[in-house]
Each structure stands twice: as C-alpha cells, then as structure tokens.
Amino acid sequence: MSTNVSNFNSTLLPSVTDYYFSALVFGILLIIVIICGNVLVCLSVYMEKALKTTTNYFIVSLAVADLLLAVLVLPLFVYTEFQGGIWSLNMVVCDGLMTMDVMLCTASIFNLCAISVDRFIAVSIPLNYNRKYVDQRQIILLSATWLLALAVSSPVIFGINNVPHRDPSECKLEDDNYVVYSSVCSFFIPCPIMLLLYCGMFRGLRKWEEARKAKLRNSIQACRKLQHATAAAALPPLSGLPPSLPRVIERDLAQTSFEEMDDYPPPACHFPSEYKNTPIQTVAYADMQYVQTPQRKRAKINGRERKAMRVLPVVVGAFLFCWTPFFVVHITRALCESCDISQHLMSTVTWLGYVNSALNPIIYTVFNTEFRKFFRRFLHSCC
In terms of residue numbers, what domain contains 149? Predict the structure, then answer.
C-alpha cells in the first residue's frame, strides 16, 4: 500500500512542479506585457497631439490602474502561485496586497464607468461639453473614481482582515460580509449603470447620424435647385456659376457612413459676386434672396471622438469577459458555505482577471488608427 502511494506521489510531483514553473514564466511575461503596453498608452497620449482627447485622458487613468496592478500586486501573486498558493510573508504585507488588489480592480471598473458617463454627456448635451481641454466636471470624475476605489478597499487596511484563528499560510479576504460588500460596490452596481449609459449613448449617436444625413440631403437639394435656377437664367457668366458639389455628395448617400461625411464640409451654395450685398432675386425663385446669415456655433462630434467611442465597447466587453467569472466565483464562495469551490478554480478566474490589464493596449492597437501609428513609430525608433 505504501509503495502504491509513493508511486502516485512520484507521478503527481512532476505535473505540480510543471504548473508552478509555468505559472512563474507566464506571470513574468504577463507583468512585462502589462507594463510595456500601458506605458506605451500613456506615452502616446502625452506625445501625440491627435490623441489628446478627453476620452483618452480617462484611458490614461485606466492604464495607470493597470500599471500599478502589474507593479504592486502581480509580483506577489505570481510569487504565491509559484509557492503552491502558500503565503510565506508577513500578514501585514498580505493586507497591503489585498488592499491594493481591491482598490486597483475597483479603480479600473470605475474608470470605465466614468468614461461611459463622460461619453453620455458628450452625446446628450454636446453644446455644454468641452472637447479640447479637461474641464472641472472631468477632473471631478477622474478624482471620484480613485477616491471611491480607495473607500471600497480601505476597510482591509484598517483591520477587517484581522479575524480570530487566521491561517497565516493563506492570503485572502477573511470577512465574507466584506467580500459581498466589495463585490457589489466594485462590480455588480457599476456594470449595469455602465451598460445602460452606453445603450443611451449609442441610441443618441444613431439619432445624431440620422439628423446629420437628413440635413445634408436637404442642403444638397437646395444647392442643386439654386444651381439649376442660376444656370437657366444665364445671368452670370459661366465662370461665376456655383462650383461643383464635393465628391462625397455625388455618392449614394444611403451607402455613405456618417464618418465619411464628417471629412467633407457641407455643400456651400455660393452666389456670384454680383449678387452679394444686393437684393437681386433669381428668376426661378423670385422670393429667394441672398442673405448673409452669421454661422451659428454647432455642436459637433468629430471623427476622433467617434473612433474612440467605437473602441470603448470592445474595452468594456473584454473587461466583463475577464472579470465576471472572478466576481461570480468570489461572491459565491462567500455566500454559499456548502459550495465546494476548488483552489484551482479560484486561481484560474484570478489569472483571467489579471490578463485583462494586458488586453487594453492590444485593443487600442487593433481598433484605433492613431494609437497604432504611434506604437509602430515608437517601436521602429527603439529598434
């Protein structure tokens, strides 16, 4: 019997050792990728003028949270995984690790929530939205994300983990009530709010696109009528006729995206110079006179902002895919004492959550042209 047990242990030991070594290698590579990728994101927004938009300042805040996670949390987590999940350091260090883990994860999702609030305001009340500089409202949003994240994680550093008969070989959140509280505040409340705001934002964008297309069609029709009228009257010489319409107007408008339309100004129906400052009427439209009206300041959602908005759902989707399993398993273990949740499952969902910090720079590279150009140029200059 003892011989069989020793044979079983000898076959099991190499697989366990391989897992510990794989966890160490994967963890080191993950830390390097997170640091390099998020440093590139911060540098790109700092150095590239085209990327200095309000949305990207929130993305920098998200990148800072991922950077701090890679520097302050992941090394100790990888070390513990390499030790077989056994905590061998001081419990004060453990409490500091748990505090930073909760705070940075919470800061990440609060940053995503702040981005959704900022984008919703930009679409809903664009005239009051400052697109060039970070204004007071955005500073408040950025500050609130970090202050609220600190508030959610602060009970750990104030001793809520100091429970009687605490196992010094495990580093985890000991109070089940706090596990439920932190999970609800960090994930289960912000996520529905964020998704609702994004739904409202894209509904507003769709209405804005339809209104823009309709306005452009009306302008085209009016301009063509005026061109035909002036051509039929033969009042000015041919050189004085209004210029031809831009290339985009000649396309089928039904197949033209509103991003393409934004690259061209609306058609300008210029009257010949002899009509200006005079009440001369056209032949075909006797009631139409040239009137110079001052251009009204319009709210405009430019192409860069729309590109940023297109990236954000992918970032949110990746975050939910990576972190939802962790929070579901985490809160289930706290609420269901009879549920048998293995350490292997907890380790897997935790790794999946940390992988999200490496995904965001990859998403920006794939879906955003400006980020991709800067990354390519920066890497070429370094290599």
Answer: 2-188+309-382
